[in-house]
Amino acid sequence: MSRSRMSKLPGNAGVSLLGDKTLDFYRDPVIFCRQRIEKHSSRVFLCRLINKPTVFICSVEGMRELLCEKSNIFLKDPTDFMTNIYGDTVVTMNGEEACLLRLSLSHLFTGTCLESSSNYMSSVCDHCLKNLSISGQPHCVYSIFKRLGAELVLGLFLNVRAEDQPEVFQEIMELCTEHWHGLISVPVNVKVPLWTSGFAKALDARSKLMEIIKDKLENDTEGFVGALGSLPFPNSGSAAQHLLLFISALIPKALASLLTSFTLALGGPEQRESRQEAIRNPDHLHRVLLEVQRLWPPFIGGRRIAEKESTLADFCVPKDYGAVYVSYFIHRDPEVFQQPDSFLPERWSGRNAGQEHLLCSFGRGPRSCIGSTLTEIFIKVSSKPSATSLVLI
Question: Any idea what the CATH number is for the domain that residue 71 is in?
């Protein structure tokens, strides 16, 4: 579709409140976006989300501009309720403060800090996945992978290991889950006899988690907790707020989502050869994981606010408009990916090797996920025994 510079966005934002489509979007993001892409013949369109005119980005071109080239224009929303839950963190802040925090934290997620944890990660994977192929019974693999993610996260970030402190581990895991479920509920803090809103429960869980975290930061000098406590944060509560973010149920859920998709993608009889190759060949395993991430990203995407008038994919975006990038459709952009709906790990080989920047599952550009390297290691360490189990089933 040809269009002139500064074209008007297709779609409309409707009127305040009555025109809001937030519920429709979160009910089924895939159907919501697909219907509008087909209606407007465009992978960039306008709608009203969270009662704000919002540009939906479903193309690689638009994603690159939003997250990379114009990341200094499209900023995190400082009024987002995630800020109220997690406070000022590297995820929720903007500008120089966010950059300084990122620099302070980045070394904890790379190099020797990760290498020192590799044995623990391998042992947790062996422990959690060893029974998949020998029990003879069907399993809910998502639950198994979520438990695996929780053990990895709490062991690495909080020095709480399930085999050493099973009761403490269980308590923290349940609090993290309650905290997360409250985050995705209606943000209304209500308590009445015999009933408490999910958001109110999340705030209670947050208070209990913060007590545990502060005790760890004060008394534990080993591992990630000790290193985090020694960093020069802008205020006394910043280390605890970041640790709350790092141990959230979000990471285990993301890991479980990707590993479940990996299992389903390689689970059919027609994929037996690919399963065996994934065990033998690390490069093939890497390509399979990229293709799983492309087709089934663990997160919907992300949201930004336009600090001033700008453009995305040649469409005019007024000041204060929201902008949402939707990973599922960006990863299936037919302008970039041939046969976009097909599972083709080989697309990441040859001249397409090293093209991971086309994906945005964990963000992209200067605000990409600070733990993306750690997440990649999590996935690779746990996916190999998963593939082995599939071969033996």
Answer: 1.10.630.10
pTM of the model: 0.88
- Is 214 within a domain? no
Dist CA 104 CA 349 (whole Å): 35
* DSSP secondary structure of 185-222: S-----EETTEE-HHHHHHHHHHHHHHHHHHHHHH--S
Q: What DSSP string runs through 165-186?
A: -HHHHHHHHHHHHHHHHHHTS-
Backbone phi, then psi, for 56, in 5-degree steps?
A: -95, 125
Residue 343, helix vs strand vs coil:
coil
Q: Within a 10 A sphere around the Cβ of 143, how many other Cβ atoms?
A: 11
In a domain? residue 354: yes
Could you identify the residue written with the tokens 């000098």?
221
The SS3 assignment for 303 reads strand
Query: In the chain, how many domains are there?
Result: 1
Residue 220: name the closest of 291, 157, 279, 140 by CA.
Answer: 157
What is the rounded distance in angstroms from the CA atom of residue 250 to the CA atom of residue 375?
A: 12
Q: What is the distance between the alpha carbons of residues 90 and 67, in angstroms, rounded to a whole number?
A: 16
Is residue 207 in some structural domain? Answer: no
pLDDT per residue as tens digits for the range 263-316: 888 887 777 788 788 778 889 989 999 999 999 999 999 999 999 999 999 999
| Residues contacting 219, CB < 8 A, separation 6+ | none
| Model confidence pLDDT, tens digit, residues 217-270 | 999 988 899 989 888 888 888 999 999 999 988 889 999 999 999 988 888 777
Q: Which residues of 97-133 are buried (b: 16+ CB within 10 A; e: fewer)?
A: ebeebbebbeebbeeeebeebeeebeebbeebbeebb
Q: Is residue 359 part of a domain?
A: yes
Compute the distance between CA of residue 272 and CA of residue 393 in angstroms, rounded to an integer: 11
Instruction: Work out the widest C-alpha separation in the chain, in whole angstroms.
Output: 63
> In which element (H, E) is residue 302 found?
strand 301-306
Domain that holds residue 23: 16-159+220-383
